[in-house]
Amino acid sequence: MPHISRRGALTAMSALSLSITLPAYAAGSPSLSGSVNAADTRSPISPFIYGGFIEHIGDLINDSLWSEVLDDRKFYWPVVKPEPAPAAAANRRRGAPPRKWHPTGPDDSVTMDTKAPYVGVHSPVVRLTGATPLGIGQGDLALAKKAYSVRLVVAADAGVAVTATLIWGSDPAMRQSVPVATKTDWTTVPLTFNCGVATTTGRLEITGTGPGTFRVGAVSLMPADNVGGFRADMIALLREMDCKIMRMPGGNFLSAYDWHFTVGDLDKRPPIMDPVWNAVQPNDVGVDELLHMARLINVEPYWCVSTGFDSPRSGAELVEYVNGGANTEWGAKRAANGHPEPWRVKYWDIGNEMYGHWQMGHIAPEQYYVKHNLFVDAMRAVDPTIYIAAPGGFADEMTTGQGIFIEGQPQVAIGSERDWAYGMFKNCMGRFDALQTHAYPAENKRYDLSTGKLVDITQSLNEWSRGMAQRIQTMADCWEAYKKAFPVLNDGKIKVFFDEWAYHFGADYKGCLAVAIAFHEFYRHTDFIEAAGYTMATGWLNFTPTDSVISATGRVFQLYNQHFGVIPVAVTGTSPVPPPRYPIGGDQPSVNTGSATWPLDVSAALTADHKALIVSVVNATEETQSLKLAINGFAPGRAGRTWRLDAPGLDAQNVVGAAAQVTIKEGSFNPRAGTLTLPATSITLFEYKLA
């Protein structure tokens, strides 16, 4: 495909290395004028705008939120002699080849039992020769100086002595060995270890001595302070993020996902190869685990149902498993799995990007509309109260990379056969409460409507920072067209869930400028944009296998989530945004985004109690700007408060092991001065309190 794809966008990374200084606020000569009319209000900002999205995209959830230290703990791969492999990035698992188990002795001392495996297709059998310890081991483990819990499923012949050993250094004293009580049948044995030193080259070995054999069915190694299997540090930071809604567990991953494999005994859930991302999934972080995590971090779960390889019956079973009483067939199975009370999930996502040929189970639109309706009818027969979002595929999204490119027809017209959202309105109206849309704009590129290709463009920092906001507006243009074709949309009951969005992927201060301006654009469309899901929610954190901090991206989310108002009000000005440079359509909206205070972008909102007015100003230029701002319909007092995202430069980041570079700084200003001075490349919230 000659244009950006979702898969490509999710792996894109870039950064800009510029050095700047953010000066303190000072009075300046106003060169721009604007006004805020607090009496001219719009629909309230939904708290779901600050939502997130997580997906089993390869090892992401398993190696970030989940606390399991081991890879392949249920032996998807055979236990064989190790092959040379490229070294993993220092102290970072993501992107490195998966670790595998290897024999601690001769290669032929371990075989794989395919006739009576504990789980999956095979389990290792270790054949012993007497007093020499033989077994299996896994190395390159990242360990902290703390206690660890091991859960070992094992069986051994009578007379065999099995030992588990955790190793954190080359010195003989830097290891701990614990005997394992075994039986001839499978037994689950809990063990405890105390790692003496932090390391990234730890090792776990399971060995035996004596006559005969022993078998290993599954092994788990977790920090003892894990919270329901999740990392305590990650849970604490996500709770601090105060995310309002979280979309899970996919994503593209969803289309080949069978949720039945992800419930019940963790050690009996079969490991499978996910054909979407070509990665082994242990199925440990399943339905109950993710919904438990949602409770731990106080977030509304927004659960995704596969309409790829799955069936309407499976969708109905999932609703009953999650929301049904313990007296129902699937609710009883949930209760047997340790959760007698229903999870009471309200928000359901029926299918992900099913308009795309990259989705497993992709079918023609006219067939998918029927399939969607079958899913919804089956699911609502189980629970008629659920709120349903469906794959939208708006015309702009179908044009700019998410649709199927046709030579000579690069732009998808509203109402055409390729306009998936139009087809959903026409064929599925009444069977969804919201339509989804996704956008991953390419940096420093535009979509050429004549060729259907992305072409390089030169942008100022200010133009670059509006890349995501521009795509929000292209969707809004589509929405206006759909309202004309389907007048029922004018009553405001059907919403849009912008449940996948991201831009830049750099997790630096430069990216924060784009996020802030994207929020401003979301606030301008509160009449129909009800929710958003940032890709990925783990991007709010910077983490290693043992430590984590809130990233620069996380701080800009906190800035607005914690301090911005909830009732948007009108902002006007004397400096309108420039007209479009490129033909309208694709990724070019009918009007460029922003407030009439160019080059500043201003948004304002009242607090819920109307006792404060918050004005957000983003100066995405490399020059200090002054804004003469009139406040109408609101009488501010003499004392004002500010919150500014503080950073030493555009490339500033927050990373584990270093002092935070991007922070939220609180200050003060005079609300009656009338003029605001905005430092170069600044993001500032001004609080005007009612007199």
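Next protein, fold it too.
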Amino acid sequence: MSGMAAASTSPADQGRSERERGTARRGALAGVAAVAAALGAVELAAGLVGPVPSLVLAVGDAVIDSVPGWLERAAIALLGRADKPVLVLSILLVCAVLGAALGVLARRWFVPAAAAFAAVAAAGVAAALQDPRTAALPAVAVGALGVLVGVAVLHRLLRMAVPRTADGTGVDRRRFVAFAGTATALGVLGGAGGWLLAGREQLGRLRAAVRLPAPARPAGPVPPEADLEIAGLTPLFVPNDRFFRIDTALRVPVVDPETWSMEVRGMVDRPFSLTYRELLDLPHIEADVTLSCVSNEVGGDLVGNARWQGVPLRELLERAGVQEGATQLIGRSVDGFTAGFPTVTALDVGEAMVAVGMNGEPLPLEHGFPARLVVPGLYGYVSATKWLAAIELTRWDDVEGYWIPRGWAKEGPVKTQSRIDVPRPGTTVPAGRGVIAGVAWAPTRGIERVEVRVDDGPWQTAELAAPLDVDCWRQWYLPWDATPGEHVISTRATDGRGEVQTDERTPVAPDGASGHHTVQARVRDV
């Protein structure tokens, strides 16, 4: 028995086992490099061809569209604005793991591994074809190119994956690693090139050439008393590059304003369409409107105020002739996103618009260029359709917007909210005369009063900045004689209808969070 054990672990067997493990490791590395090369080729070709989206992002969009609503809400709550980068990185990681597995499989069964490679590419093409803007033939051609590149790299690397033996056969490890590294690097460069060629740079130049017309009904001048300019306080108008962005698009849709048009259709007497130039030629209004995401937690930053410019929805609907029973307006995006809200809101709220401008410039790409919907008083998930393609009038129960089947309420009025910006949660401030400051919003109703409570003391009325419009948030502040120690600060607002912000804490789902914003501050003795 001892002789048999010794024989089973002989130096020759140990050498073969080590070579087998080394070959398996090289097979896995070959698979990862092949996937990187394939993805780079696909991204570069998609950028060159034009009407084909990134297959990686297409898969990501398919994941977003198919996951249960509770999981999507949990991801937003946990990751916030990092949810999209995390999803893309996760897809790339899964691709790398699949590549490693296929590389190991291909060492013995190359044809089945190559077939699996093609099946994965086919899944990516199928996901891309879910986008109505994707041309079928170029998408298939791009997917096929990715398969050819990936399989060719995999085949070449596997031929190099046999470790060099004592008699000099096989490939030197350094040469194998160099080839695999080069294939991976070229894949990364190809992917980066594809992103640059995807039209974003050209679109940025087209946007920069746009000149917004002077509005027929401009917003009034901003009095100095409307912006308190307290250090740490959110500005009255959030700069475009700092304005929150929440949407379902993994990559900003590339929409050429020269070929873009928007339809007004559905339950209307006179359907029509508008080009971008025609939209710019219509009479415009300006309005200061605070937008809020339904996923904004109490005290969160998924809310912002801007001066918007565009064409009133009311005028477009009057031109179309809304039919009796058309109780819902559905906004449709070029990427398939939909959001619906009551038609009466579009008719009654004069500042509801098809917006083309934001804070004095054409809409940024990330915020809906060339046109989007802005509807005061409603959370974005039911109203703020970006990259607008169509306005469709329907009955209330005939169509559900994107988020409704995913567990969100069909109606989404913005709740009265206030937030403490100064002091920041968990910060340490010096004792003595200081200030507590923040913002409060209740679009369409306005803010009449903000109150602040320190620890268990009485509610104190804060000073309000001058109002601009009922749709616009108001800054507020309260002088504070800060004493050393730990303090809990709370705030609540009263809107223009006399309704006081509730202290009942509710989650963001299904129709927005509620409760008083509370921060803890540490005051040090000076």
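About the second fold: The domain at 417-524 is CATH 2.60.40.650 (Immunoglobulin-like).
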